[in-house]
Amino acid sequence: MDITKILEPLNDVQRQVVTAPSTAMLVLAGAGSGKTRVLVHRIAWQIQVENHYPQNMLAVTFTNKAAKEMRHRIEHLLNIPTHSMWIGTFHGIAYRLLRRHFSQAKLPEGFQVMDSADQLRVIKRLLNNLKLDEEQWPARQVQWHINAQKDEGIRARHCLTPYDKYAEQMLAIYLAYERLCDQSGLVDFAELLLRAHELLRDNPELLALYQQRFTQVHVDEFQDTNTIQYAWLRLLTENRDNLFVVGDDDQSIYGWRGAKIENIYKFQKDYPNHHIIKLEQNYRSTGNILKTANQIIQVNQGRMGKELWTQSDAGELLSLYTAFNEQDEAYFVIERIKTWLIDKPRRKDIAILYRSNAQSRLFEERLMIAGIPYRVYGGLRFFDRAEIKNALAYLRLIMNRDDDTSFERVINTPTRGIGAKTVEDIRVIAREQNSSLWAASIALINQRNLSARASNALVSFLNLIKQLSEKTQGLELFEQVKLVVEKSGLLAFYQQAKIDNSEEKVENLEELVSAAKSFVFTQENEEQLSELALFLTHAALESGDRQADEFEDSVQLMTLHSAKGLEFNLVFLVGLEEGLFPSQQSVDDAGRLEEERRLCYVGITRAMQKVYLSYAESRRLYGRETYPKPSRFLKEMPAECLQEIRLRGNISQAPSIPLPKKSPIANEGRYKAGQKVSHAKFGTGVILQIEGEGAQERVQVKFNTPTIGIKWLMLAYAKLETV
DNA sequence: CTCTACGAATTTTTT
DNA sequence: ATTCGTAGAG
Q1: Which residue in A102, A436, A514, A720 has a CA-CA distance of 20 to 30 Å to A216?
Q2: Strand C: which positions are within 7 A of a protein CB?
Q3: What is the pTM of this model?
Q4: Does residue A96 sit in the same domain as residue A124?
Q5: Do A531 and A591 reside in the same domain of the chain?
Q6: At which of A491, A523, A543 does a domain end?
Q7: What is the per-residue pLDDT across A650-694, written as a single tens digit (0 to 9) for each?
Q8: Which element (helix H / strand E) includes A145?
């Protein structure tokens, strides 16, 4: 048995984790310490050395991406098929359980998973039915409230006796929402988890079955688990000490959506025999970057305590730039990107990280002007796009005519003369006879008091759906999708030139057909579901990758939240201002402020080689000029790791004019911007700018030889001559 | 039904 | 500033 392959790539501590005897274990894995590697190798070790079978393995992650990567790496390492291991997201695995045991879970066989947009629509409809004022009961807030309850494992019937009118109404809405979902067989994301928990909790034989099956349970990003997820893990591993969790309390940045960092402490209480091992050796960043990150995170109270270290060099200092305003900040960042790209042309090694999405725009504009390809994370995902959701709604409807959410979505998309009035009539009837909108439509037509025009339109819509379900019978999945996209009128609708981005939407619809074509049925087909049903679930559970241009080498723009788990050679952390980062909504609350600080820690530890920090002295925000203070996080960084970049110069220039950066400024007389210099190797050139002081002082020179271009040179080393 | 105008809100995101 | 959603007019 060849175990060197498993052990050799590991350091001592990692090896200790991987080879530890089976027991409850908490691995505190710092940023860049090889967290995934440890998880993967641990599983491999258990299979190859400890004689566990692949089907004994359960590994849970938060994102599909992480799950895929883990499966891939195990396959690669062990060279065995992994289909019998359960590796997936909490939601994916919950779904699988519910599918297998739908009746014990008290679900109809054909239950459907809703994504959050679907859920919001359902809630909107519900509020409408209940005749509640939208001002007072914003659907988003209701959605948030319901999900928060479910995340805590609280059903409507478990809610405390309401203490005021508000709570009373909210409870009534929650109850009505539960009833509605039950009736129509709809399951939202939080419900997947809650149901899966109840399924195991209320069916001891079933629980025992899974407890026996999963001799080892592994969890990634444990600090992000919420109450119900932990409770579910707890059920599976109770009294069995077979829970292996990897996480980092310092990277817990999802408290605001229910993640419970306390689960780390609960774990220690609930599994008294647990071991804790810290992975603190970092393989990603330079010494200065780690020193800065360590010092910042130290400000937080009540940490588990961890200090990253590295064998690599101190590397460059972190640079701090004070911009006049947000325009200047963007200008500065893009200039530095240009300079970096001269030597290191891989654009995807560069990331601009910000606190809020709204900040991306200026950087995008500048990158566009500079002609540098870039990619912004966080837009709509493939399956979230309106045109795709419309097509999926048609597909749902031909599978299940009583799917009211889909019915409402496409009844007049593309417009076919069924207005709000008619739809409202249908809703009223549906409510009266407690039926689906489909059945209500038929009833409404039979009542014959619709205008001829409305009646015709409605009849032809119903016929369209009927025809589609007939014609798709027996077709291949992709042919079904293709037929629906074409015959529903969606394709023609989006082909009209007057619709914004019409080509893109048409392309997306075509892409949906090819997605259906290449859809692989990994699900062992243990459930007797149609291909279409499986495809639709796939669409709900995996919002899909982002744009196809993912493969183009481009500068990466994203929020700090989306950057977790990624790494880049060069990182710009921008907008370090009080009120922006930390965000205004967090500054008054110690706990939330600590989460912001962790976010800062996450941001800095994304960088491998170089970090630029920046803030603006003036920023246009919500249409007003603001004059924010520099972020408190800057003061928490070790001064000796920071290097201030001063482009002193024409400050008298109106701050709103962003471009005047070439302004010359004296440096000890000898070198200044605009000065012609010559270098022994590179020839003659012109100084563009100067930064740093003393030994760190550097100049940026544009050399006359085009192949050499613009370079940064340390004054202390480069033997420059003034010309 | 579609278009325009006005008012309100404006951290972070996966499933 | 900008976006988003709704109300009212055409």
Answers
A1: A102
A2: 1-2, 6
A3: 0.84
A4: no
A5: no
A6: A543
A7: 443 333 333 333 233 334 456 666 677 776 656 677 776 666 555
A8: helix A139-151
